Amino acid sequence: LKEKHKILHRLLQNSTS
Amino acid sequence: DSQLAPGVSMGELDRIAQNIIKSHLETCQYTAEELQQLAWQTHSYEEVKMYQSKSREVLWQQCAIQITHAIQYVVEFAKRITGFMELCQNDQILLLKSGCLEVVLVRMCRAFNPLNNTVLFEGKYGGMQMFKALGCDDLVSAVFDFAKSLCSLQLTEEEIALFSAAVLISTDRPWLMEPRKVQKLQEKIYFALQHIMQKNHMDEDALAKLIGRIPTLAALCTLHTEELQAFQQLHPETVNVLFPPLYKELFN
Hints:
The structure holds two protein chains of two kinds. Chain A is an all-alpha fold. Chain A has one helix at about 5-15. Chain A starts with 5 loop residues before the first helix and ends with a helix. In chain B, the strands form two sheets. A three-stranded antiparallel sheet of chain B has the order 3-4-5, covered by helices on one side. In chain B, a hairpin with a 2-residue loop joins strand 1 and strand 2 (about 10). In chain B, helix 1 crosses helix 9 and helix 7 (about 135-150) runs antiparallel to helix 11 (about 215-235). The longest helix of chain B is centred in the N-terminal third of the chain and has 24 residues, at about 55-80. The radius of gyration of chain B is 19 Å and the shape is globular. In chain B, about 35% of the residues are buried. The interface of A and B includes residues 4, 11, 16 and 17 of A.
């Protein structure tokens, strides 16, 4: 799931914007 | 801190509710005050004509950009919900992938004026006719109908916050790795929502009516996917090259 949703995964990992 | 059910106290429900409401207020894209100020700023006749004269590809792209922008705020909403971030990564991705558009549609009712059936789009309010060039009148009118029906329930910001969270943190999504964990959190959110709605609404069935809208939300998202697939068949290069990458990742 992470492989197919790299952008979403990255948004979840990034510190709060 | 009295017990409402095994393992659930009033204090805990209140903490969960306050966390979700705070997250919503911080990530709702437009504050209630901003929406109030914009309330009667409508797109002019010339501006509507301008939207109607756009090509199908251009308007689809513009809408995809606006939807993606709104989704980014929903992702941030989720990230600030303590219980959501305690779920495993797989389930976080799954819930957001399947629920983010539903949450955008719920949030949309804040930016919808039921008195003249207009929605805030690119800075001003406009009616359904603004979206004619998309070539999916059924979807657009269904979205407007949904927004109007949600507005008729006259939800407070707190209720919108909790309902958005309940829609997102849903056990109805297939392939959850920890469905029991999601269920426990969702139940607490609904308990909190019920408590708030009982205080705010004369109608005892207000929460049931709200829950009754959920199938429509799911149907709207399915219709959106279908329309996107049909559009992509005709204009694959527009989607591949010009649509936001996050939109493609979620809906392609």
